[in-house]
Amino acid sequence: MSSPNKLEAATLAHHKEATDFDDKTSKHMGDLDGLVTAPGVEIDAATNKRLFWKINRRILAIQLVTYFCQSLDKGTLNFASIMGIKEDAKLVGQEYQWLGTILYIGILAGEYPQNFLLQKLPLAKMLSVNVFIWGVVVSCSAASTNFASLMAVRFLLGFFESCVQPAMMLLPYLTLCGIVGGLLAFGVSHFTDGPIKNWQLLFLVLGIVTCIWAVFIGIFLPDSPVTAKCYSEEEKSLMIERVRHNETGIRNKEYKKYQIVEALTDPFVWCCVMLITVANLVIGGLGVFSNLIIQQFGFSLLQTQLLNIAQGAWLIVAMIGSAQASQRSGQTCLMMLLWTVPAIAGTVVILVVTPNSSNAGGMLIAFYCTQFFCAQGNMIISLITRNIAGQTKKGITMTMVFVGWSVGNLIAPQIFREKDAPRYLPGFLVHVVVYGVYIGLVILTRIVLMAKNRRKVEAVAEISHDLAFQDLTDIENPNFRYVY
After folding, report:
1. What fold, for 253-484?
2. Which of 238, 314, 386, 419 lies deepest, with the highest CB count within 10 Å?
3. Does the global pTM surpass 0.90?
4. Which parts pass through the membrane (predicted)?
């Protein structure tokens, strides 16, 4: 059960479900029933690798750039926090924190309608329209000069960005944080004598770039690898075959109520919801306050913006490293625990060491260590995509996880109280407690999955793939094995 195969299974399953009743798509999928019922064939390693990269050269590249735009647009508030937005917009008390929270309230508000439309409309076109609209919203943020108007645009940004999380969960999932953001913010920070503030220019530039990228998405992103014109019929057949061994199915023509019940009563599903919620109590807060925290170590505005570049590179290393370690070791839960250790160490240093000019570098390294925890989101999603089967159950699980992700992120900024600035020590103390809770949840999740596998082995010792396309859940499919 390789992770790339699993993720493509989820992608193909969603697109087939969304296009079952589309006559135009049906012409491209005419032989699908025969492919599904036909005896399985072996695909050699070289062909498997070629198919994987051919699919991902286009889809993964567009996904990464889109996530890059989302990360920049969503994180612009963090860049602007040290560029004078708090003073220019006359933000007082917890108002800055609420600008972080309202984004995720908007995401929660848009989650249901966006998910509904993603199931009914072509995914690529739906994504393109939403990206364009949120680019317009980001540009309009440049004209927002008080708390009320900033709250409005942040809510709308969250509403239209809510399409990206479910859309990207249906495509091969990988997150990318922007090194470019720090470089762009550094350049814009030099703009001091123009008709608008430098933080307003930052919003304007990023919004326009996002709108331009939305047009590219509409042109180049296929609605499904199986129906894309850039793949031959033979390649499409082999794509279907690659899914067979994953035991997660490829289509679902009906909404199965028993799978809803199973999702709501499965302890593993609730473990995942709690994991993503608790993890983002830390991740969400660091995302909104990282520049303010780094600056109080003694760095200037321009130095802090430049340090975003190093922070982005550090974060990429942490995320890729977690993915590689999980894949090679086959021990995702253990890697989740291991990646929590540097974050705890860095947080403890920030709590006990007082920043001064002589230890600024050490404090920065301590803060960078907390960024290891940001990789937890990817590893949690990896657990879900590899251990949940049944299309209705997967849909319900992803919805629950998405809600948990949003709730964690909307609470996170409130952990840092304005009265505790600039060091926010009580907030970091809460983070230490959160790490402890998270470690307990990871251990519980591993125990749950180990118990599930023991029951599977006791029931069926020899695995076959005869039920691969029957849309069975992971619990009812005797051939399914959990990976943790």
Report:
1. Growth Hormone; Chain: A; (1.20.1250)
2. 386
3. no
4. 96-112, 132-157, 169-189, 201-221, 268-294, 300-321, 333-353, 365-384, 396-416, 428-449
